[in-house]
Request: fold
Amino acid sequence: MKKQSFSLFKACVCGVMVLAGAASCEKMNVEDAEEESKANVVLRIGSVEQVPFQMARTRGRDVNGVCSRLNFLVYQGGGKIKQINQTSDDEDFGEVHVQLSEGRYYLVVLAHSSDDNPSSNKVDEIKFTNAMGFTDTFFYGDSLIVGEDNIMLTLELDRITALIRFISEDEPAINNNRIRINYTGGSGALNGTNNGWGKVKSQQYKWFDVDNEINKYDLYTIPHEGADQHLKASIYYYEINGDNVKPLFDDPFVINNIPIKRNHVTVCKGKLFGSFKENKIKITINNDWSADSLYFDF
Reply:
């Protein structure tokens, strides 16, 4: 990612993966006219880089059609000094006005659709959790120099996530109404100073409802930096009625060495509900997001 000095400045925000705010959290509204009138930095989301799952091959989509939350984070001297959170219900979604003293800062912007904002006190370890959910996440991070002149930045966001999609070719047992997929190898946290690459080795999971009308199960993760990235997925099967949770098998169906890549979709297709010893799943990393394809069988 190019670093730019910011009299005129384009930012990139990518993928997936956002900020559960701790200290110094604020939400700016148009009604706060006095604060807005003092602002010397305007941040505006112009577009996001996205090739959608449908083969429309559209890039530069408006942020409203991609995410439900935005987080604007400003750091200085290793600490967070300002956080502005927005949701898609806000009238000014995609634009903030900030007052900053002259000096050098580090700016991180995140776009996502998690149920809450990730923790963000440390710029090099911004964390999502299983409770808030992992979604398609987009990122920007770079230096911001504030001088005497006002600054207006138009931000272009880039994806930092990989999508793993399970497609079942068989039907679940009649009493199997929930599954949980645990997965390791990716990250639920990102490094804001390293282009949004995964920071830690996370234990991620997601619950899904199961019925004959559903055959698709999507997981998101933030890949670590490096070309050879793989996930391990463990699928657990349950019958759940009210507070009664009944595991249907003693052991999960384990799938090893699932390849993942930033801005790519890994499709795992096969019999998810049959005899585990007989299951054969074909895995494809396709080009619904990016421009190349990978294939994997297990």
